[in-house]
Amino acid sequence: MVRMQRLWANLFGGWFQLSRRFPAALLDEMAAVIAAGERNHLGEIRFALESRLAPLEVLGGLDAATRARQVFTQLRVWDTELNSGVLLYVLIAEQRIEIVADRGISAKVAPREWEAVCARMHESYARGEWRAGSLAGIIAASDLLTRHFPGEGKSNPDELPDRPVLL
Q1: 40 contacts 146 by C-beta, under 8 angstroms
Q2: pTM more than 0.85
Q3: Cys bridge to 77: 29, 52, 58, 85, which one at CB 3.0-4.6 A?
Q4: Closest CA to 134 of 102, 89, 93
């Protein structure tokens, strides 16, 4: 039953919503907020947006959590000197948010803290507040990284692009 609901959502939802909900101006704003946050911590944040999954992938059992891990690898979020990459992944068709953190971050930030960020974003998205939810998620992730992985005057090279990626 759940797989059929997911299939329906991915067949008929999401594909036309990506550019409408995330116009270029919002992507620029998100990139600026990511860059500003990264000045305060040693983490690297990537934000990936995907409109929907292919129907055969859904039927094959691919879910948002697995896809987020694939995107984490595909975008090389793991490829930072301090193992400090964090991916915020949004699957629009299913309104699913997944956060994947590299091992350097996972050692310091508890899963429940990431779950709270996802819940906050989902609440905004459910109200149709895509901008507010995305910016709140980025800020909350940066706050966690600042608390658990502070920069404290250390050099933090910008190792990953700040602009969100549309998949």
Answers
A1: yes
A2: yes
A3: 85
A4: 89
Q: How far is CA 61 from the centre of its chain?
A: 21
Residue appearing with tokens 């109200």: 127
Rounded mean pLDDT of 6-18? 66
Residue type, 139: I
- C-alpha span between 57 and 66 (Å, rounded): 11
User: Kind of pairing, strands 44-50 and 85-91?
Assistant: parallel
pLDDT at res. 16:
65
Between CA 128 and CA 135, with CA 129 as vertex, the angle to 5 degrees is 150
Cβ neighbours of residue 25 closer than 8 Å, sequence gap 6 or more: none
Helix axes 130-148, 24-38, angle to 10 degrees: 10
Q: How far apart are CA 31 and CA 39, in angstroms?
A: 13
CB 89 within 8 Å of CB 45: no
Contact 144, 41 (CB under 8 A): no
Q: How far apart are the first and last CA of the chain?
A: 27
Q: Which whole-number Å values give the CA distances from 81 to 56, 68, 84, 104, 144, in the listed order?
A: 36, 21, 7, 10, 19
**What's the chain's length in residues?**
167
pLDDT at 89 over 90: yes
